[in-house]
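User: I'll paste a sequence; please echo it back and then give the predicted structure.

Assistant: Echoing your sequence first, then the prediction.
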Amino acid sequence: MSSSSLSMLSRKLEDLRSQPAVLIGGSMAAEILLVLHGLSSGASMTEAVLFHGIISVFVVAGSLPWLRRREAEPGLALYVASLVALGPIGVLGCALMAMVRWISSRSSISFEEWYERLFPQALADRAQALYELIEWRGAKPSRESTVSPFCDVLDQGSVAQKQSVVTLIADHFKPEFSPALQRALNDPEPAIRVQAATAAARIENHFLQQSVVLQEEREKDPGNPSIMRRIALHHESYARTGLLDTERAAIERTIALEINMKLLKASPHDPELVATVARLLLELDRPELAMRLLMPWLRSQSIPHALVAPMAEALYSLKRLRLLRRLSARLLASLTASAEDEPIRASLGLWTPAHG
């Protein structure tokens, strides 16, 4: 036999010795022989325990190199513990467990396949992907792109159609889609409820990851107002997802409010910041504070567009209906003819003197 063949055989034997299967098979055989020897020769219990202890020492010492590895098989640790504690009974139990696992694995699916079934690929090709981007990214004004079709599909669609809707919601989530996701969470079909719950967890995990990224940016540049605004918007968006309970949503809004209040002190004449703070105060059921913040802007010649909606809501919440009626014309004048302003324009129109 050549030296190269001997070297190859030596490497194969070394590989064989490095496999846990050798240790498991050898220890199993030793325990079986111990039982057979005890049955045939009538060995005493002390002698059997002594030999079992020797086998256990060799098994523990031989398994340590594999158990210390990160990629160690959990079943190996279970086998070692079972053999040391229960002897032949532990070996038999592990063998039965391995057999059941092998039988069940023949009909099971991988995690990747399970996840693919849970979130089926909604976009089939590049043309459809482009169509989805056009539909989702601004082909229509935001007020026209409602969640109603999603709710209709969840009410009347097939299981496959519902799964596609939940997949789209998870992939392109916006707070406006929360009602549809809530409906999916209460769907009578168990598979849809599981998928919706997984989507909700995935959305929350995305917010958590984004929060970590924003905090890291804040630590690098603590005084940057742009980063502070993004952090505040992140907390506000998280509160508006509809996935949080009332208390947690209020906490997120309070954090956003505190950050925006600090920014407002540095820029007290920024109508966008004033509108954001006022809106958060209204959502936290503090209309008096919101109105106190908005009152100085009534002295300006024209009310900024961003302040129209929070000002009307604050007046209505405080039941200051006469003032709302007097201001309705000025508020309407600050709105645009866009579809985005259509709801507030229709509401204010009811308070103009022409409507009595």
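Residues 12-18, 122-127, 136-145 have pLDDT under 50 and may be disordered. The two ends are 110 Å apart (CA to CA).
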